[in-house]
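Researcher: For the annotation table, I need structure tokens for Thioredoxin domain-containing protein 5 homolog. Please keep the output clean. Sequence:
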Amino acid sequence: MSANSSNFIMLKRHILLFIFMLSQVNSEQGDHIHTTMQYTKDNFSTEIQKKNHFIMFYAPWCGHCQRLEPTWEQLAKMSNLEDKNIKIAKVDCTTDNSLCTEHDVTGYPTLKFFKAGETKGTKFRGTRDLPSLTSFLTAQLGISLESEDEAPTPPEPVNGLLELTEDTFDKHVSTGYHFVKFYAPWCGHCQKLAPTWEELANSLRNDNYVSISKVDCTQHRSVCGQFDIKGYPTLLWIEDGKKVDKYAGQRTHEELKVYVSKMLEKGNDQANIMTENLDSTTHTVLSLTGESFKHSIENGISFVKFFAPWCGHCKRLAPIWKDLGKKFLTNDNVKIAKVDCTLDVSKELCNEQEVDGFPTLYLYRDGLKVSEYNGARNLDDLTEFILNYIQPHDEL
């Protein structure tokens, strides 16, 4: 090798070393600028053992992720830089796909809270604004302060839907009626059924006779093995801990709801009362989603409540809204409806309709938004508001 070649190789090595050192300096400076922790498959499982974590699973090309980024950074500044037992972090699913698959990430962004020392997260389903995110964190941190000596109990239902685990399944299904979906996150048919299953749970959320739940068979194999689950999704009707029937019908919301009513009628006479109440409620206030919204409001007057289950003002309005629905029940030109903005199937709709707080009350005529209600939330004022938009021939 010539002297010139040796000198060229040495020079090249020095240049590469300088570039590497410069990148390290820039990286360290960047760590001071950004307060959001960036986790990978190499450090994720170690870090979430140390503290409570709120993780954003994202893809760089995702528009919703890009819009959330400044809010997420603001949340991180509030939490990461203060002496709190919570870290705000994120995982890039385009570079750590296996990690995201392991945590059932099927859309972007997916936000999950991980309690310190636990590997299974609680999914955030609200609107992605700072007050909603901080409210969710406050609630989760409140739960995390409870005694760890307590026996495991099922988490609170999200819109009526329970996520059961190996620790909570047997106790939960030991008494009563249960309709359970056994699934795998990677299963295409399961992904297609997911919004319908959430809608079913939501429509039965106030029922005291049946619970709608789901079990991830990739995480809780012993439960699925107990019921000999061989395909996904498998929908089982369970009574007092025992399998009674396997559902084999069409997987539409209406067909599933009819099946529930039929199975309850078989169970005991008291279920007939529940079924009558369910049908009455369904016709009094329409439960709409992103899929059914446009078609449902295209004719006549539609007064729609956009809400979140955890919202205190929404809870106080709920019985009044139901009474409002009863008041206009016989008027074919007026529909009283509601949209749960925490459902995955409705989040995009709520964003499109510019819902930035709960409850938001919009009035539509023939599919077009004509007014937002900002008055007192009592039955008389709400009724008068609707009457102002009804044509003379549409009287009660």
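Researcher: And a one-line annotation?
Model: The CA atoms of residues 126 and 342 lie 5 Å apart.
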